[in-house]
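re: that complex we talked abt at group meeting.

here r the seqs, copy pasted straight from the sheet so there may be weird spacing, ignore it
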Amino acid sequence: KQEVTQIPAALSVPEGENLVLNCSFTDSAIYNLQWFRQDPGKGLTSLLLIQSSQREQTSGRLNASLDKSSGRSTLYIAASQPGDSATYLCAVRADSWGKLQFGAGTQVVVTP
Amino acid sequence: DTEVTQTPKHLVMGMTNKKSLKCEQHMGHRAMYWYKQKAKKPPELMFVYSYEKLSINESVPSRFSPECPNSSLLNLHLHALQPEDSALYLCASRPVGEGQVMGYTFGSGTRLTVV
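got the structure back, here u go
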């Protein structure tokens, strides 16, 4: 059974610092990996999607890498801002039906 | 239109009530999903619909009844719920076939409270 782990569970940084969020998964047979952002009580906003054949994806200040063989993905957020405060979830798609297996999330607080 | 729209945003219901959650998308996605998320926990899959047919039921109690009347609409009918069913219910959709690179789009959720 696929298990997804996110470390750290919580992170607090001053504004301007770079954020590094880690995600690991136990079974390398994945279709893709998707990073989401969730604000309190809200739905999930997709940030980046990395296909299993890709090594990284970039969007603005966000960069996500994927090392499928070692079962790891890292989300980098450059020059953090207070508006980046949220919970970040990684999710692995491991079957043909598209079922997502989520990590528990990293709660990020960026202080002004 | 690149959104998944869920209504209502908040719902309070008694244990004897019958209510429905609605999810709508007009992106042409042929896979639609219901997820349940308890506080401080990640989302957990409940149901998968593919081409309007129920493909996966993750052993969800029968008091939750999904319905997909057409390719744009997904409903979740609720009956005789328990207080422990209180959660954020998330709908999501995904293209199948040629558009698989796009991944999931989630709605903003329905916050359900059972009293």
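couple things i noticed - The two ends of chain B are 36 Å apart (CA to CA). Chain B has no helices and eleven strands.
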